[in-house]
C-alpha cells in the first residue's frame, strides 16, 4: 500500500526524497486555492514564478499577471491573490494564460519539482486530488507552503483532510506528521472557519479585510479538477 506523508514546511523538503512520489502542494490561504479557481474559471495554463519582475515580463506575451507580497497585490500586475479575481468579472480571464508569483505558494511548487508529479491541492478540489492519487498508486507527500518557512494550521489541516479521504487506500498511520495532521483535522473539521480564526494567517488576512476569501477557500469539493505541472506550466 502506498504511503501518505505530510511535510509541514518547504524548509523541511531537504529531509524528503520526492523521487517516485506525487507531491501535492497546498497553500490554502490562498495561492493554490486561487490557482484551482483560476483554472476552473477558464485560465488555460499557469506559470508560477519566483520574482515580481519575472512575472511582469509575461505581460507583453499576452499573459495575465498576478502577484502577492505580504498578502497584498503587488504593483504593476493585473491581479492579486484573491480567488475572486478570477470570478468577479472585473478582469476577463477565460482563455487567458496566467503568470503568478506569491510569497509562499509559488516557491513551494518550485521546490517540489523533483517529484514524479506535482499537483495543486486545496479544500476546493479535495476529492478530485484524492481520486487522482488513488489512480496513481504512488507514495504521496503533501507539501505545505506554510508562511515564510514556518508551520501553519490551514495547510496542515488540508493534509489531515486528504489523509482522512485516503485512509482506506493509503498508509496514513506510519508517519507522525500525517497522524498529527489527521488529528488536527478531526478536531477542527466541524467548524473549520471558527477554528482557523486563531491562526496567524487568518488574523493577517482579517486585517486586510479579505474575510470572504477565507470562507471561499475553506469550501470542500467545489471543483472537480486537478492542476498538474506539465512541461514548465500548470494545466
Ligand atoms: O504566500 C502565499 O503564497 C499566499 O497565498 C499568501 S496570501 O494569502 O496571498 O497572503
Automatic annotation (TrEMBL):
Keyword set includes Transcription regulation: no
InterPro entries referenced in this protein's UniProt entry, alphabetically: ComB-like, ComB-like_sf
Any one GO MF annotation of this record: magnesium ion binding
Catalytic activity, EC: 3.1.3.71
Enzyme class: hydrolase
Keyword DNA damage (UniProt): no
Catalysed reactions listed for this entry: (2R)-O-phospho-3-sulfolactate + H2O = (2R)-3-sulfolactate + phosphate
Cofactor(s) demanded: Mg(2+)
Keyword line: Hydrolase, Magnesium
Record-linked HAMAP family: ComB
Family: Belongs to the ComB family.
Name this polypeptide is given: Probable 2-phosphosulfolactate phosphatase
Amino acid at each position: 500500500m502506498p504511503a501518505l506523508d505530510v511535510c509541514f514546511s518547504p524548509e523541511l523538503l531537504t529531509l524528503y526524497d520526492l523521487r517516485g512520489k506525487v507531491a501535492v502542494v497546498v497553500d490554502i490561504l490562498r495561492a493554490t486555492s486561487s490557482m484551482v479557481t483560476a483554472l476552473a474559471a477558464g485560465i488555460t495554463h499557469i506559470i508560477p514564478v519566483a520574482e515580481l519582475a519575472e512575472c511582469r515580463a509575461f505581460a507583453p506575451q499576452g499573459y495575465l499577471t498576478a502577484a502577492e507580497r505580504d498578502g497584498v497585490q503587488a504593483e504593476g500586475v493585473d491581479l492579486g491573490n484573491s480567488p475572486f479575481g478570477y470570478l468577479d468579472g472585473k478582469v476577463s480571464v477565460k482563455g487567458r494564460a496566467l503568470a503568478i508569483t506569491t510569497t509562499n505558494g509559488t516557491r513551494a511548487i518550485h521546490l517540489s519539482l523533483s517529484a514524479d508529479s506535482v499537483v495543486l491541492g486545496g479544500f476546493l478540489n479535495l476529492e478530485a486530488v484524492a481520486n487522482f492519487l488513488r489512480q496513481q498508486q504512488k507514495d504521496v507527500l503533501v507539501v505545505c507552503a506554510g508562511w515564510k518557512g514556518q508551520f501553519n494550521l490551514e495547510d496542515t489541516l488540508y493534509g489531515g483532510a486528504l489523509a482522512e479521504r485516503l485512509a482506506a487506500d493509503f498508509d496514513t498511520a506510519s508517519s507522525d506528521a500525517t497522524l498529527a495532521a489527521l488529528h488536527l483535522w478531526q478536531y477542527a473539521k466541524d467548524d473549520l472557519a471558527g477554528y482557523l480564526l486563531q491562526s496567524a494567517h487568518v488574523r493577517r488576512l482579517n486585517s486586510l479585510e479579505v474575510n470572504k476569501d477565507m470562507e471561499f477557500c475553506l469550501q470542500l469539493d467545489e471543483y472537480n479538477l486537478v492542476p498538474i505541472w506539465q512541461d514548465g506550466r500548470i494545466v
